[in-house]
Amino acid sequence: MLKLEEAKDVEEMAKKINDTLKLIHDIDKIFFMRSQNSKSNVIARTLVLPAQWRFVYGEKKTYIIEVISEKFDNLTCDEKIYVVIHELMHIPRTMKGLRGHNYKGFRMVNVMSRKIRKQIC
Fold first, then answer.
1. Where is each Putative phage metallopeptidase domain found (predicted)?
2. C-alpha dihedral (15, 17, 18, 19), degrees to nearest 10
3. What CA–CA distance (Å, rounded) separates 69 from 95?
4. Are 32 and 1 in contact (CB under 8 A)?
């Protein structure tokens, strides 16, 4: 059975990454969650809330970054940084829509994660 919970540790890591790399994301508009027993093959994923849900729940949260517990929690701190940066790269600075993997910033994820790992881990 799928179990969902808030992922405050991932949110704190994302805040540190955002501040250190000056990514200019409004982290308060992102909800961070951890799922257990997911059938997904990914380590993490970024979702945008549909306009209808934002209308019902208010504009406070626009995105969800979900980490899959069985895969994410076993990673090293360096690997977690890489994954969180990767997921943040899907969110444009305008906070509208999602970026695909063809966005040029994805080529810099390795460089960015190496640059800040000593400050975060």
1. 3-110
2. 80
3. 26
4. no
Question: Residue for token digits 């992102």?
Answer: 30
For the stretch 49-89, pLDDT in tens is: 888 887 887 777 789 999 999 999 999 999 999 999 999 99
Structure tokens at 54: 């934002």
Give the strand order in the sheet containing 44-48.
Answer: 3-6, 30-36, 63-68, 44-48
Instruction: Give residue 61's identity as a one-letter amino acid code.
Output: K
pTM: 0.90
Alpha-carbon distance 93 to 23, whole Å? 8
Domain ranges for the chain, please list them: 3-120
Considering the domain 3-120, what is its CATH architecture? 2-Layer Sandwich (3.30)
* Cα–Cα dist 38/46, whole Å: 15
